[in-house]
Amino acid sequence: MSFAQTLINGTDFDHTKLNALQKMVLRAVVMSFLFFGLLTIEGMIMRLVVTGPSNPLPEMFSHASHYFSIMTVHPIVGIFGSTYQLVFAAFMFLVPFLTKKPLYSVKLGNAVWILITVGTALSWIAAFVWQYAPLYTLYWPLPADTKQFSTIGGIVFIVGVALIMVGTLGFIYNIYATIFARVGVHKNKTTKELLISGFGIDGMLNLWHKLTGKPPYSKEPALALPVVAIFRGTVDTFLDAIVILGAGILVLVYLLADAAGASWNVHAIDALLYKNFFWWGLDLVADGLVLIYVAGSWYLLATLITGQKLFMENVARAALMLELLVSWMVWSHHLLADQPQPEMMKLVSGEMVTAFELLTQGLALFITLVTLWKARPLKMTPPLAYLLGGLIGFGLAVPAAIIQADMGMNRVLHNTQWISFAHFHIALIVGLYMTLYSAVYVLWPLVTNNTTMWSKKLTWAHFWLYLIGGVGMGAFAGMAGLDGMLRRHLYLNGEFHTWMILAAICGTMILVAWALFLFNIVMSVGIKGLIGIFLPAQDPSASYGIEEEEAEEEAQPAPQAAPAS
Amino acid sequence: MTFATSVELLKFHWVAYTIYAVMIISVIAWFAYNLTREEKAKSIVRIPFYGYIAFLVAGGVGHHIFTYNAIPWVSEDIMRHEIKPDVVFDIHIKNHKWELPARPMVIKAGQKVLFNAHSDDLVYGFGLFRKDGTLVTQMQVDPKRKNDLMWTFNECGTFDLTTSEYAGPAQYDHEGHDLMFVKDAVKVVGCNDKVAMNEEAHR
Question: In this complex, do B145 and A486 lie within 8 Å of one another by their Cβ atoms?
């Protein structure tokens, strides 16, 4: 097949054979990777601006209002537009797949990606058109500062974020409605049994019974471990959505009052109390659902890649519960530089409880590596390589987090590029995204009905460029942070020139890697297939793989009753 | 081991974390290589599960114990309400402008200085920087709150001030100049040359 024909038709992708669930998932994945491209371009613009006056960008990007409006939407596009979409899509496919039950509602699943896409686009437009730039931290009263920002821009931004959160609530409802549906293998399970399994209490009881010499509480837990991780992480997703919605409503009320001509006292809201509220919620993403979802994904990927049981599964179940509790109590590490914050909260929440993340994430890393190790020799496939890349990412980023979550270190690291790059960019770009790429390659045959990937060479080129670029950018920009470079500051005179040039080179590698990945995907599904993904599905099925099993069961003769002896 | 200044601490941190980063990447690379090999790999060390857990716990707790003992400003910060400062500077910020009690604020090396920063409108940061751009110390400045930072300067030199927290684009003019940047905001005198910063060398 010629290049042009492949570009139009793909390798062997047939969108007409996809069912409603598969199409819903692929639509969200397409939007996710388009937002990832936008994210990477935004990141590169910011990287180039701070390289100094010789940067090749038009002058407007160096204006503070423009620069910080990009910085404001960058995490909205990255966390919600790209990551949430991809994770939600994967989980709305995996929960039905692993529980062998249909998704509660494909329509709701479609509403989720549409709401998140529209919400992200609105927030982006607010920043682009009105240069609304209070940053994602929304430190009160900056988001309501109408002397610096346009009121209408603020309203559009907050409406955008609210739509994202409504979409998030739709995802949460869909997941729990699917897990608690008493159909298929869960037909005879009670809600209590599913709840006990969802919270990992069965894993803890199994451990306790083992210690006390009793038989296991549950030999076959009601929910598979990855579903437990999704269940547990989604608790944090819910709490975070409520907090962000709450903060959004507060900002919106003030902006609407301003638009109506009223001038409300912004200091009626205590800035420090607001910071605590906001960071409690936002940290449920960074230190909650991300870590729990990632641990669950590692376990799933390790078992799918090796085809073997997970090493120390009961410990893994119990650790996920611990991670959930830890994630509710660690937000104060963001407030270690806030002097009015009570010292006891800094010590207990900011330092001691936060240090538990070293334990929970270290456990997940250990369990995943041992599961892989016990199954060797393994073939170095893309899913395995990306999984190992994900382990490197968190292996670097989590200790970096524990180091900075310290009253001594934080005094000189807070708000520097160290936090931004050595910690959370490596966690997200390398740790989270390489795990997600592993999941993409594992799920690809299931979601696309075994479509052949166009080029293996491009897959590996993407892997190496992305890994080296991600680690390199995090390392070089992080080192600039140790030299005093602030993360929310405009540097136009090449103050940290060498580090920024190196970081920009690595950032370019990420951008090129994304372009190669996207090109490979487009060549695999073809432009026709890409459009076809967004056309209605002929097969309304909301599950994958269980129809065949049901058909097989129906084809077999009914078991005869055993004769009475 | 004690770190007298933040530069010493950051240098140590740079080296320690780089060694760790190389180590963890090497460990995963070793795993990746041996996962694909037919023959059984020889373990370099055998790590028992509970030994690994103990190592993680010791790492998490030990890090804080180490910094408490090695970084002088930790205990000073926690106990600052009970320590009588040698000098107090009251600083006000409004509309992205500093109101400083003196310029420069002159301090003798070794004195316990209390910076009291008050913001009337937004969240700012109080960040002191050396001439080479490295951070001396900082705190967040929350509006309508008492923001007090106690600091003992163990190094001489003049230090620049700017907000270490973003407070909107009004902090910059159209050319991108930082309007909150105060050159030579703090001057520390009276220490021997051993720890003094060579300002000119870094200009």
Answer: no
Dig out the tokens for B96 from the structure.
């992205």
CB-neighbour burial class of residue A26 (10 A; exposed 0-12, middle 13-18, buried 19+): buried
* Ramachandran quadrant class, B133 (left: phi over 0; alpha: psi -120 to 50; beta: rest): left
Tell me, yes or no, if B53 comes closer than 8 A to chain A by beta carbon.
yes
What are the percentages of helix, strand and coil residues in chain B, rounded to 5? 35, 30, 35
Using one digit for the tens of pLDDT, what is the confidence trace for B99-136? 999 999 999 999 999 999 999 999 999 999 999 999 99
Q: CA-CA distance, A276 to A67, in Å (whole number)?
A: 27
Q: Which residues of B touch A349 (CB under 8 A)?
A: none
**pLDDT tens, B47-80?**
788 899 999 999 999 999 999 999 999 999 999 9
Q: Which residues pair with B189 in a beta bridge?
A: B108
| A chain contacts of residue B127, beta-carbon cutoff 8 Å | 415, 486
| For residue B24, pLDDT beyond 60 | yes
> Closest residue of B to A375, CA-based?
B35
Residue B140 pLDDT grade (very low, low, confident, very high; cuts 50, 70, 90):
very high
Distance from CA of A404 to the nearest CA of B (A): 10
At residue A553, the pLDDT reads 59
B137 touches chain A (CB under 8 A): yes
Question: Helix (H, G, I), strand (E, B), or coil: what is residue B183?
Answer: strand
pLDDT in tens, B154-182: 999 999 999 999 999 999 999 999 999 99
Residue length of chain A: 565
What is the nearest CA distance from A122 to chain B, expressed in angstroms?
21
In this prediction, the residues of chain A whose per-residue pLDDT falls under 50 are 558-565
CB-nearest partner of B142 from A133, A271, A347? A271
Residues 6+ apart with CB under 8 A from A279: A331, A332, A334, A335
Place of tokens 């590698």: A509
- A–B interface: beta-carbon pairs under 8 A: 210
pTM: 0.92
B121: which chain A residues are within 8 Å (Cβ-Cβ)?
Answer: 141, 145
B48 in reach of chain A (CB within 8 A): no
- The per-residue pLDDT for A324 is 87
* Integer angstrom CA distances of residue A463 from A447, A510, B42: 21, 10, 28
Tell me the residues of chain B between 95 and 124 that have a Cβ less than 8 Å away from chain A: 121-123
Q: Determine, for residues B169 and A133 on separate chains, whether the beta-carbon distance falls below 8 Å.
A: yes
ipTM passes above 0.90:
yes
What domains can you pick out in chain B, each with its CATH number? 6-70 (no CATH), 84-202 (2.60.40.420)
